[in-house]
What does this fold into?
Amino acid sequence: MKCDKNFCQGAALLLIAITVLLAPGAGAQNQYKTLHRFKGGKDGEFMYAGLVFDQNGNLYGATTGGGAGGNGTVFKLTPKADGSWTKSVLYSFTSSGTDGANPYASLIFDQKGNLYGTTVYGGAQGSGAVFKLAPKADGSWTENVIYSFLGGKDGGNPSASLIFDQKGNLYGTTQDGGNGAPGNGTAFKLAPNADGSWTESVLHVFSGGEDGGNPTASLIVDPAGNLYGTTFYGGGGGSCPGGECGLVFELMPNADGTWTESVLYSFTGGTDGGNPETDLIFDPAGNMYGTTKWGGKCTFSDGCGVVFELTPNKDGSWMESVLNSFGGRDGFGPTAGLVFDATGNLYGTTVLGGDRSLCNKSSGCGVVFKLTPNSNGKWTETVLHRFLARPGSLPYAGLVFDASGNLYGTTFGDIRSTLGSVFEVTR
It folds into this structure.
């Protein structure tokens, strides 16, 4: 399997001891169930991507490695009457990588039931691809690469999910490419053509400076068609690993087809958080919510991460509020976005933290958490699950709800004992 600076180095770094104080003892656990544990090989292995439901209650996802060609898979989980789930591989990326290689991001459906996703590597130039999977009458799926990144001005190495607009255009980000080598990333659009091809246009090239750099999360869109996202680096400076601490940005469409970027908030790496890898989410009032991987109030030198809210002001600026600052046992290092339930509670995951007495004594193996709003404007955190070494650990991706309000997610796996899993948390 091919490696990149995030995948293989990131996996190795998670096995290195991280010195952080975590309180002893175990808390209450919600009912946790493993739906599938990846075996490696043709079954697939290691997951950065989250899950998506279809209208029939089936789950779909992607593994970063494994499969028949060693470059990852797209899979389906079908629920059975006895409560178990049947897994099937819809597509294995080939060893050549020309059809894409190593998907990191969650998949999305179009209105016709086709799946779309991105791969960090592969494609015609090895700089990543956008692919489409179309279902056939016999139950098989056909894969087509709708765009291969060149790694230059058009962007390279996309690690985020895609979104559709109402006209059927796709939008996304690349963590590299743009200007220079390897570049600081782009925001892009893919427009469908009548002949079935797609045309890519770059909405913004990040400089790595005050406008941000290296976006690793997907975009969201407001009713007016403006796009919002985060960058891991760039911004106004700070004390984060690697320098600048990242930011939240807005892209506004202009009448001539260009887009204008505005920085809504630059993180400092202090108590306000630092280095967001997260997708954002709106509430009904137009406030945005997300997480940062670092920063906050914990004793670890770079911080354990925060959950934040951005509220728009009348003058067009935005105010940041920290809803929760992780401390270790309640979570450490969130990299995924959040989800709301029907009553306004937020749910998410952290890659590390939890109960180090039962998993990875240096840093823990991650948690599933809930944030409940209080009448005084503050939020109360509850840990719903602390991951163990087996059968799953290190949840990089966010969560999805089923119709009954149960939560579903994925774990990356810690290489030594697990190769990733799909899980359910019943509330």
Residues 1-28 have pLDDT under 50 and may be disordered.
